[in-house]
Amino acid sequence: MAETSYKVLVLHGPNLNLVGFREPEFYGRKLLENIDEEIKEEAKRLNLEVRILQSNSEGILIDAIHEHRRWAEAIIVNPGGLTHYSIALRDALTAVRLPVIEVHLSNVHAREEFRRHSVIAPITLGQIVGLGSHGYTLALQALKKLQEEVV
Fold this sequence. Notes:
The protein has five helices and five strands. With 151 residues, it is an alpha/beta fold.
């Protein structure tokens, strides 16, 4: 009997569709489609199933969280600018009662003061910042390890 894969919803927030073009000194030169491919490859290697969504709309991200609450077993989220003020996104993540890891491509703690505060971080398992696209693969690895510890 084949091992059941663990299901992870990956959400990219506002402006992440411009990664590779937007401020490459902070976000790198890799396009989002390449980051998504890395995520899919690492998920396959770890026997995880992923669904990936990017939206510039807070409401679409919240709807995706609600819609995937019965499918997903964990969420990786890069909330982009919503990190600093979106209580609605935080409430959606809390409401579905799934483990969450917050990822940021840049080191938000070494940037402008307003970027150093996350309303999302307190409800997550952890935060991975400043490691570029590797943050997503590290989040997948962490979720896999945590899932194995529970089983």
